[in-house]
Each structure stands twice: as C-alpha cells, then as structure tokens.
Amino acid sequence: MSIFVGNLSYEISEDDLTDVFKDYGIVQRVYIPVDRDSGRKRGFAFVQMENKDQETKAIAALDGAEWMGRSIKVNEAREREERTERTSFNGGGGDRKKRY
C-alpha cells in the first residue's frame, strides 16, 4: 500500500514529509512528482511506510490536517490506471468529409 498526500505546498521536501509521517511509524519511501516541462513540484506526494497498520494510523490522523498553511488530503493511493495509446494525431474534428 502507498499513501497519497494532496494539496501540498510547492515548497515541500522529502524531509518535511518524512518528519510528519515518522510519528506514525517507519517511513520507507517518499516520492514527490515534478512537472516534466517546468521541473516544479506538482502539489502532491506518495509515502510508503513499513506496514499497513502504520499507514492506516497516518491516514486517520493526518487527513484534513492543517499543515504549512494548507488543509492536506491524505488517503490510500489508488493503482495507476493504464493509459491507452493514441493512434491518431490528426487534430480531431470528428467524422468530417473531405472536400475536393
């Protein structure tokens, strides 16, 4: 299981998240996604703890908590959904008939 942490400040660091979550158990991993183009943090993160009990306690205690001036959202992370590959890059336009 992994924990999703949303509505985070863009100034957040892995150490900041580790400090908050260590009160509920052993933090194994913190991942803060960044925007591909700008390199800016995206305002959410994922935290993995040693076991499910620790993660459950952290979710119960931190969901909705005020932290760094924001009300954070903390819940169980969902599995990443499969993306379908785009097969056409024709710009859309539906089923238009070509005019010649």
TrEMBL record:
Gene3D superfamilies: 3.30.70.330. The keyword RNA-binding applies. GO terms for molecular function: RNA binding. InterPro entries: Nucleotide-bd_a/b_plait_sf, RBD_domain_sf, RRM_dom, SLIRP/GR-RBP-like. Residues 76-86 have a biased composition (Basic and acidic residues). Signal peptide: none annotated. Residues 76-100 are annotated as: Disordered. This is RNA-binding protein. It comes from Microcystis aeruginosa BLCC-F158.
